[in-house]
Amino acid sequence: MAVAQSMSAWEWVGTATVLTIFSSTGTACLFWPATVQKFLQRRYHDSILFRMTLFSKWVFRPWYPILLRLCGLILWSLVLLELVFSRAAGGH
Q1: Nearest-CA neighbor of 22 among 81, 92, 85, 79?
Q2: Can you tell me the distance from the alpha carbon of 25 to that of 33, in angstroms, rounded to the nearest whole number?
Q3: Is the pLDDT of residue 21 over 60?
Q4: Phi, psi (deg, nearest 5) at residue 53
Protein backbone atom coordinates (compact mmCIF):
# COMPACT_ATOMS: atom_id res chain seq x y z
CA MET A 1 0.00 0.00 0.00
CA ALA A 2 1.42 3.36 -1.02
CA VAL A 3 1.55 6.14 1.51
CA ALA A 4 -0.16 9.30 0.28
CA GLN A 5 2.08 12.33 0.26
CA SER A 6 0.64 15.65 1.29
CA MET A 7 0.62 18.47 -1.20
CA SER A 8 3.09 21.31 -0.95
CA ALA A 9 1.79 24.84 -0.54
CA TRP A 10 2.31 25.74 -4.21
CA GLU A 11 0.59 22.57 -5.40
CA TRP A 12 -2.36 23.37 -3.16
CA VAL A 13 -2.54 26.96 -4.45
CA GLY A 14 -2.39 25.77 -8.05
CA THR A 15 -5.08 23.16 -7.50
CA ALA A 16 -7.31 25.62 -5.65
CA THR A 17 -6.89 28.18 -8.44
CA VAL A 18 -7.80 25.69 -11.17
CA LEU A 19 -10.79 24.42 -9.19
CA THR A 20 -11.99 27.99 -8.62
CA ILE A 21 -11.73 28.82 -12.32
CA PHE A 22 -13.48 25.59 -13.32
CA SER A 23 -16.28 26.01 -10.79
CA SER A 24 -16.95 29.67 -11.62
CA THR A 25 -16.89 29.01 -15.37
CA GLY A 26 -19.08 25.94 -14.91
CA THR A 27 -21.56 27.93 -12.84
CA ALA A 28 -21.77 30.68 -15.47
CA CYS A 29 -22.26 28.13 -18.24
CA LEU A 30 -24.94 26.24 -16.31
CA PHE A 31 -27.03 29.09 -14.96
CA TRP A 32 -26.44 31.96 -17.43
CA PRO A 33 -25.78 30.42 -20.86
CA ALA A 34 -27.49 33.26 -22.73
CA THR A 35 -25.29 35.83 -20.98
CA VAL A 36 -22.16 33.83 -21.75
CA GLN A 37 -23.25 33.48 -25.36
CA LYS A 38 -23.81 37.25 -25.70
CA PHE A 39 -20.38 37.89 -24.15
CA LEU A 40 -18.74 35.52 -26.63
CA GLN A 41 -20.63 37.07 -29.54
CA ARG A 42 -19.31 40.49 -28.54
CA ARG A 43 -15.81 39.01 -28.33
CA TYR A 44 -16.29 37.63 -31.83
CA HIS A 45 -17.07 41.07 -33.23
CA ASP A 46 -14.38 42.90 -31.24
CA SER A 47 -11.41 40.57 -31.60
CA ILE A 48 -9.70 39.40 -34.76
CA LEU A 49 -7.85 36.72 -32.78
CA PHE A 50 -11.13 35.30 -31.46
CA ARG A 51 -12.51 35.12 -35.00
CA MET A 52 -9.48 33.12 -36.09
CA THR A 53 -10.14 30.29 -33.61
CA LEU A 54 -11.44 27.02 -34.94
CA PHE A 55 -15.01 26.93 -33.61
CA SER A 56 -15.63 30.67 -33.18
CA LYS A 57 -18.72 30.78 -35.42
CA TRP A 58 -20.51 28.31 -33.11
CA VAL A 59 -21.46 31.20 -30.83
CA PHE A 60 -24.13 32.21 -33.35
CA ARG A 61 -25.81 28.80 -33.54
CA PRO A 62 -29.19 28.36 -31.82
CA TRP A 63 -28.00 25.20 -30.02
CA TYR A 64 -24.98 26.92 -28.45
CA PRO A 65 -26.62 27.48 -25.01
CA ILE A 66 -27.19 23.72 -24.77
CA LEU A 67 -23.51 23.14 -25.49
CA LEU A 68 -22.60 25.67 -22.81
CA ARG A 69 -24.76 23.86 -20.25
CA LEU A 70 -23.09 20.58 -21.17
CA CYS A 71 -19.66 22.18 -20.74
CA GLY A 72 -20.77 23.52 -17.36
CA LEU A 73 -21.79 20.03 -16.25
CA ILE A 74 -18.46 18.62 -17.39
CA LEU A 75 -16.50 21.32 -15.56
CA TRP A 76 -18.44 20.77 -12.34
CA SER A 77 -18.00 17.00 -12.60
CA LEU A 78 -14.23 17.52 -12.91
CA VAL A 79 -14.26 19.75 -9.84
CA LEU A 80 -16.24 17.22 -7.81
CA LEU A 81 -14.08 14.31 -8.96
CA GLU A 82 -10.94 16.17 -7.95
CA LEU A 83 -12.38 16.94 -4.54
CA VAL A 84 -13.52 13.36 -3.97
CA PHE A 85 -10.27 11.75 -5.10
CA SER A 86 -8.04 14.25 -3.28
CA ARG A 87 -9.87 13.42 -0.05
CA ALA A 88 -9.64 9.68 -0.77
CA ALA A 89 -5.88 9.98 -1.35
CA GLY A 90 -5.41 11.83 1.91
CA GLY A 91 -4.87 15.24 0.37
CA HIS A 92 -6.22 18.46 1.78
Answers
A1: 79
A2: 11
A3: yes
A4: -70, 160
Domain borders along the chain are: 33-92
Q: What is the pLDDT of residues 36-83, one digit of tens each?
A: 999 999 999 999 998 898 888 999 999 999 999 999 999 999 999 998
Phi, psi of 65 (to 5 degrees): -60, -30
pTM: 0.76
Residue type, 91: G
Pairwise CA distance, residues 21 & 28, whole Å: 11
CB atoms within 10 A of CB 72: 22
pLDDT at residue number 5: 60
